[in-house]
Design a protein that fits this description.
119 residues; alpha+beta; three-stranded mixed beta sheet
């Protein structure tokens, strides 16, 4: 298996998007003890982490981390008026793939507030 660094150089050379599917192991990124295992993440354009798998959350809770968040908002502009709440300063529709549904991040934050996510 080639090293992530070598693989990343090839992708960069040909201007190919580098995504790391770290559905379980990616949670190490948030751990002081195990963060060193994710050093190669810095080479990726995007990373996915499935918190419902690696943190045993009882509902789907996935993260998509990207280097350039502007790219996502530029490519996911939606104009359906029934999906948005113009009177709300907390409208997340243009910042979430799920649009009308609540953000998965809230589930993760709530568990953290319960001190249930000791890493």
């Amino acid at each position: 298996i080639e090293s992530v660094e070598k693989f990343s150089r090839i992708l960069k050379k040909y201007n190919i998007w580098h995504h790391i599917d770290a559905c379980v192991s990616g949670i190490a990124l948030f751990s002081n003890k195990y963060r060193y295992l994710t050093a190669h993440f810095k080479h990726a354009h995007s990373i996915t982490i499935d918190c419902h798998k690696c943190l045993n959350l009882n509902q789907q809770c996935s993260l998509l981390l990207v280097k350039d968040g502007g790219l996502l908002s530029d490519c996911s502009r939606i104009t359906a008026p029934y999906l948005f709440h113009k009177d709300s300063e907390h409208d997340i529709a243009n910042r979430s793939f799920q649009c009308g549904r609540r953000a998965d991040g809230f589930k993760l934050w709530f568990c953290d507030q319960l001190d249930d996510l000791d890493a």
